Each structure stands twice: as C-alpha cells, then as structure tokens.
C-alpha cells in the first residue's frame, strides 16, 4: 500500500528493494509529498523506502494527524486484453474506507474515467505502467516467458 500523500513522479531503479515488483505500485518510485503544509517536499531515500512506497507511514513526520485514509492499494480485477479493470482500496486504521474500480482502454491507451483525487489517479497510472510492463515483458519481472519454458 502506498502512502495516500505520496505523489510519484518517476520509477526508481536504485531504491534497494529486494523484490520491487511486490511493492504496492508495482515497483519503487521517486516523487514528492503532497501532505498539507509539505507540498512538494522531496522525501529522503530512506523515507521513500520506509514510508512513501509502503503506506501506513505512521513514523513519517509529515503525515497529517487528520486524514481520510492511511494507505492506498491497487490490483487488477480483470485483464481482458484490450481492457483492464483496476481495483483501488483506500484504507484507514487497517480497514477499507473507500474503494472502487478504474477502467483502462489498452487500445486507446487511456483511462475511461479517472479518480477525482489526482494523487490516487497518479498512483493508479504508476501501478498500471508497472503492470503493463510485466505483461509485455514477463522475464523482466522474473516470470519465465513461453520461449524459455
């Protein structure tokens, strides 16, 4: 689960994660904080590893005391080849607070509707990017391709 105040900007290949594809956004990301009063603050590498990319950042000094959710998670609900349905769940207190589905048209390479919160939409973009990369390049994610079987 990613921190709901994390605004990812670019994939981070040097994050030091043992299994980056297992991270909530499908890989490690660099970015900035969007918590009230800290907008644009660039987290340290340690903060990116321990808080931003992993959610439930209770130890982060920028995390607002009052917030709608503590973390956001994503998952592909259905992959029909030309259309993807992506579930999102915003959690508060380790329980679902809000949830929904975002639909992506793979042929037009665009979302069919977007999430009203630009942070969550940006995280969905990052998750989708990582998912699509694994889908077209399975060996890059440690998944054997049909040619190597």
What is shown here, in short?
By secondary structure, the protein is of the alpha+beta class.
Verbal overview:
With 149 residues, the chain is α+β, with helices and mostly antiparallel strands. The chain has one domain (6-137). It is built from two helices and six strands; from the N terminus they run E-E-H-E-E-E-E-H. The chain has helices at residues 45-52, 118-136; strands at 6-11, 29-33, 71-79, 83-92, 95-105, 110-112. It has a four-stranded antiparallel β-sheet with strand order 3-4-5-6, with helices on one face. It has a two-stranded antiparallel sheet with strand order 1-2. The longest helix is centred in the last third of the chain and has 19 residues, at 118-136.
The amount of beta strand, in percent, is: 25-35%
Distance between the termini: 33 Å
How many independent structural domains?
Answer: 1
SSE sequence, one letter per element: EEHEEEEH
Largest beta-sheet characterization: 4 strands, antiparallel
Q: How does the overall form come out from the CA principal axes?
A: globular
Radius of gyration: 16 Å
Look at the helices and sheets and give the structural class: alpha+beta
Helix content: 10-25%
* Low-confidence residue ranges: 143-149
Across the major sheet, the strand order is 3-4-5-6
Summarize this structure as a short list of keywords or feature phrases:
149 residues; alpha+beta; 30% strand; globular; disordered C terminus
